[in-house]
Amino acid sequence: MDGMHRVCKALMLGHATIRAVQFSAYLEPDYVGIEADDLPY
Questions:
Q1: Which DSSP symbol is given to 37?
Q2: Rounded to whole angstroms, what are the CA distances from 16 to 3, 8, 10, 12?
Q3: Domain tally for the chain?
Q4: Which of 4, 15, 22, 25 has a beta carbon 3.0–4.6 Å from 10's, enabling a disulfide?
Q5: CA distance linking residue 20 with residue 25, whole number of Å
Q6: 2-40 in b/e burial notation, b at 16+ Cβ within 10 A?
Q7: 13-26: per-residue pLDDT in tens?
């Protein structure tokens, strides 16, 4: 969950800050090394 889409949107809207939270535990990614066309969503 890098949230880069949120950064891009904030820049497009001219926001100077972005609200965020930090998780207390590391969350394993659901999919690693999979082509976008092979994702189930």
A1: G
A2: 16, 12, 8, 11
A3: 1
A4: 15
A5: 15
A6: eeeeeeeeeeeeeeeeeeeeeeeeeeeeeeeeeeeeeee
A7: 999 999 888 889 98
Q: What is the pTM of this model?
A: 0.49
Structure token digits, residue 3: 């949230």
Round to whole Å and give the CA distance between 19 and 3.
Answer: 11
Which pair of structure tokens corresponds to residue 37?
């066309």
CA distances from 18 to 1, 7, 13, 15, 27 (A): 15, 7, 11, 7, 21
> Range of 26's domain?
3-38
